[in-house]
């Protein structure tokens, strides 16, 4: 797919088609980097995303105790 650079003040931008944005799961913020001469755009992934699901079995086996219930 060919797209054109758009002049925005002293910078340039590109318009990305809506279906491409949805397919990539892009939201309001993106990471932008350069790898081997290519611009790479990736979604920003919040820290600890998916931890709860990964630890669900562990949480069920050893539930977190309320404050003051710790055994030393």
Number of helices: 3
The strand count comes to: 4
Structural class: alpha+beta
* Mean pLDDT score: 83
Shape: elongated
Main pleated sheet: 2 strands, antiparallel
Radius of gyration, CA atoms, in whole angstroms = 22 Å
- What is the terminal separation in angstroms? 62 Å
Low-confidence stretches: none
Proportion of residues in extended strands: 25-35%
Spatial order of strands in the largest sheet: 1-2
Helix content: 10-25%
Note down, in words, how this protein is organized.
- The protein has 3 helices and 4 strands; from the N terminus they run ββαββαα.
- It has 72 residues and is an alpha+beta fold.
- The chain has a domain of 35 residues.
- The strands form 2 sheets. A two-stranded antiparallel sheet has the order 1-2.
- The chain is elongated, with a radius of gyration of 22 Å.
Outline of this structure?
With 72 residues, the protein is of the alpha+beta class. The chain has helices at residues 18-24, 51-54, 56-61; strands at residues 6-8, 11-13, 30-35, 38-43.
């Amino acid at each position: 797919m060919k797209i054109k650079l758009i002049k925005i003040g002293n910078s340039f931008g590109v318009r990305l088609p809506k279906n491409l944005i949805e397919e990539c799961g892009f939201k309001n913020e993106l990471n932008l980097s350069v790898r081997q001469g290519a611009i790479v755009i990736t979604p920003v992934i919040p820290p600890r995303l998916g931890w709860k699901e990964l630890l669900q079995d562990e949480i069920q086996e050893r539930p977190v105790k309320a404050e003051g219930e710790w055994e030393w």
